[in-house]
Amino acid sequence: MMRFLPICLTTLTTVGGLIPLALTGGAFWRPLAVVIIFGLLLATVLTLLVLPALYAIVVEVLGGGPSEPSGAGAGDDAGQ
Asked: What's the predicted TM-score (pTM) here?
């Protein structure tokens, strides 16, 4: 979560830069700017909020985190 603030600020800066284009753009640029703004906002929300929550649910349902590797050389002192 230490990257939460920089990601949000980058998203808001990009959206802020596209708002004038979305408000005063021509027939081609206005819809393009609106789609980029909402796509960027949706991708940010999905990446920062929904994906980690979904990952936590899947890990809980499947029963814990990653399993430990087995076999020779997997952290034991058998080779020394």
From this structure: 0.69
